[in-house]
Amino acid sequence: MHSRNRLTLSGGIRYVILVAYLVVVVFPLIWVFYTSAKNTQQIYNQPFALPEIITHPSAKSLEILQTNYHRAWSDNHFGLYFLNSIKVVSISLFGILLLGSMAAYVLARFEFRGRNFIYYLFLSGLLIPMQLILIPLFFQYSSMSEFLTRAFAPLARLLGKGELTVSLHDSHEGLILIYIAASLPFTVFTLTAFLRTLPSEMREAAQIDGASEYKIFFSVMMPLAKPGLVTVAIFNFLGLWNEYLFGLVFLNSNSLKTLPLGLASIGMQAQYKSDYGLLFAGLVIVMIPTLAVYSFLQEKLTRGITVGAIKG
Amino acid sequence: MARVLLKDLTKTFNKVQAVKGINLEIRDQEFMVLVGPSGCGKTTALRMIAGLEESSSGEISIDERVVNDVSPKDRDIAMVFQNYALYPHMTVYDNMSFGLKLKREPSGKPWPMNAKRTYTKEEIDRRVQQAAEILGLKPLLQRKPKELSGGQRQRVALGRAIVRHPKVFLMDEPLSNLDAKLRVQTRAELIKLHRRLGITTVYVTHDQVEAMTMGDRIAVMSNGLIQQVDKPLTLYNHPTNLFVATFIGSPSMNVFTVTLSESDGAVYADAGAFKVALKAEQARMIR
What span, in angstroms and rounded, lies between the C-alpha atoms of A193 and B160? Predict the structure, then answer.
């Protein structure tokens, strides 16, 4: 009886702590969601109060909500930014996962001279702060663009395209290249460690079955590496979806901007106009894909796929 | 139908010699067991036959063809791994047909159509069904490995090997992950399977009971060398050296240190506690 009481007590304390933590983490999220249904006046008057659409549902309160989202999505081009973000992040992710997993597979499974050197070269990428390479990279992109323009000039003339200017500045392609390169160290590091844990007999069995290295990689190793790939995909998605600095420096045209840049431009306008309803609607638009991706992939993450592969 | 021949085969890992020059003839349709304590080089030898490990020197031939520089897939072998190494994301059917689907041969057309599938879908299906029939896997074909018991997984691994109709089976301790009862049962099934298919088999084990009951002939290995190759009973009755004598048999053979003495034309072995007269033939050999 005594020990049972103590158990409940410690259990109770645990719950109190967990609930407090839940409130600290989840409340701001919920607050953002419901505040996006209020207008600036209401936000100023009662910052934490529930919006009218919940307390006194009416056509007028619905209109506030609609106005906020409509102004964010259409007037402030969030629809366009959204597509830009999807494009940049999904192509980057595809490149990161493809290149990262291939590099990691070779580093994890093959013995060759210089393997450790290449591995540590990737790792050293983790040590470099991205802010540090921002300016050199900017100038490097300028000279690379010039070089590429000159290199492709004969081909452009041959095809009758006249003057062709290649520019990595102010283009999604340039930004994607940076995103891929910047994400590879983490990706390779994580996946190498993960791939080393997979049984090597699987590769040998496939070799005897007559699979080429590419076939082994895509048909045998990649399905096995799914939990590792999902982990890496989630982390990279979160990082890239919210990435602001490189987007700000390398994208100038309004039509190319990604969501974080769009959000920041509302924030900057808000200095003069203070349209908080609009800002919160924008925030919700930025957050929803993150929540969706996380809840969708997280379930796959926890499922171990090597179960049953080998006796264990 | 194939003979496997190993000539002066060695393997060195970072200065450690795992296999120190072995010569072995595995006759056509023979069930050859490589047995020895852990680290004796038996698995390394098997992996060299499979082509998963490159030999440091020496020659391996399968069916009178030297295969040292032939890749595993072209050696016409099939291997069963100790931990089965099934593809966990594929069904039993796909596990068994994976190798058949991949097999290509030259089609005579220009690149990239220069290779065509060796087996048609129907042929693959026929072979998988046949193997499933033999191994009693028919009801399990659509399951994934994780939904199978250890014994069933083991049979899928065997099935994956036999659908290929290889010249040689290589088995690396395939029974060591099964419980005692299933092991004895599967042992009998493996022998039956071998009789039925008549495929040359190289079987690696550290369990001398397995070796004695399954092998047509047994190669006893120790320290990277073959100590003796013989039929099970010959090995048991006439071991060539002390290692084989003590390794084979359970309980193992008793060994005494004796002093030899000769008197009245007979040779005596004196162990201290007892003294026996050697037979005339043994005495002649010692003299």
Answer: 30
- Domain check: are A7 and A61 in the same one? yes
Is residue A90 located within the same domain as residue A39?
A: no
Beta carbon pairs, A and B, within 8 Å: 84
Residues A136 and A265 in one domain: yes
Residue A302 lies in a domain: no
H or E stretch at B229: strand B225-230
Tokens of A203: 């590769």
Exposure b/e, A86-120, CB count within 10 A at least 16 = b: eebbebbbebbbebbbbbbbbbbbeeeeeeeeebe
Range of the domain at A57: 1-75+275-287
Task: Give the SS3 label for residue A78.
Answer: helix
pLDDT in tens, B169-195: 999 999 988 888 888 989 999 999 999
Name residues whose C-beta falls within 8 Å of residue B58's C-beta, 6 or more positions apart in sequence.
Answer: B6, B7, B8, B9, B10, B21, B22
Contacting residues of A for B71, CB less than 8 Å apart: 207
Q: Are residues A223 and A253 in the same domain?
A: yes
Same domain, A55 and A140: no
User: Residue A134 burial by CB count (10 A; 0-12/13-18/19+): exposed, middle or buried?
Assistant: middle
> Looking at the 3D structure of chain A, how many domains does it have?
2
Which residues of B touch chain A, with CB atoms under 8 Å apart? Answer: 50-52, 71-73, 77-79, 81-89, 98-99, 102-103, 144-148, 150, 153, 160, 177
For A67, counting Cβ atoms within 10 Å of its Cβ (0-12 exposed, 13-18 middle, 19+ buried), the class is middle
- Measured in whole angstroms, the distance separating CA A40 from the mean position of its chain's CA atoms is 30
B50 vs A contacts (CB less than 8 Å): 204, 208
Cα first-last separation, chain B = 47
Is A308 within a domain?
Answer: no
Token pair of B73, please?
A: 């897939």
Q: Pairing relation of β-strands B275-277 and B168-172? A: unpaired
DSSP single-letter state for residue B23 = E
What are A112-159's pLDDT values in tens digits? 999 999 999 999 999 988 889 999 999 999 999 999 888 888 888 888
Q: For residue A27, is it within any domain?
A: yes
Q: pTM of this prediction? A: 0.81
Contact B90, B141 (CB under 8 A): no
Do A97 and A69 fall into the same domain? no
B11 within 8 A of B53, measured Cβ to Cβ? yes
Could A310 and B84 be called an inter-chain contact, meaning their C-beta atoms sit closer than 8 Å? yes
Q: How near does any CA of chain A get to the CA of B49, in Å? A: 12
φ/ψ bin of B272: left (φ > 0), alpha (ψ from -120 to 50), beta (otherwise): left
